[in-house]
Amino acid sequence: MSTGKEPTLGEELKALEDIVRRLEADGTDLDVALKLFEEGVARLRRARARLADAEHAVQAVLQDADGTLRMQDVDL
């Protein structure tokens, strides 16, 4: 990601899948595994924050004019 742009949620999830595959591989060096784990935790936190932001945005859109909040399931 040398463009300086924040990765998309899809890119974060793809990177997490790659990290899991590498951690599950036989023969992964302990130091490498620790670095991968740390990267995975950081990516997971960013992905969760983006999902929370999206949920808040959806709730704001669904809020009625009188201030009540209509909750409904939304597929993101």
In short:
With 76 residues, this protein is mainly alpha-helical. The protein has two helices and no strands.
Pick out its properties.
76 residues; mainly alpha; 2 helices; 64% helix; 0% strand; elongated
Helix content: 55-70%
Taking Cα atoms only, what radius of gyration do you get, to the nearest Å? 18 Å
Query: How many separate domains make up the residues?
Result: 1
Spatial shape:
elongated
**CA distance, first residue to last residue:** 24 Å
Task: Give the percentage of residues in beta strands.
Answer: under 5%
What series of H and E elements makes up the topology? HH
Question: What would you call the quaternary organization?
Answer: single chain
Number of helices: 2
Mean pLDDT: 84
Please mark out the parts with pLDDT under 50 across 5 or more consecutive residues, or reply none. none
Q: In terms of structural class, how would the helical and strand content be classed? A: mainly alpha
User: Could you describe the largest sheet, including whether it forms a barrel?
Assistant: none
Number of strands: 0
Characterise the protein shown here.
The protein has 76 residues and is an all-alpha fold. It has one domain (9-62). It is 64% helix and 0% strand. The protein has helices at residues 9-24, 30-62. Helix 1 runs antiparallel to helix 2 (30-62).
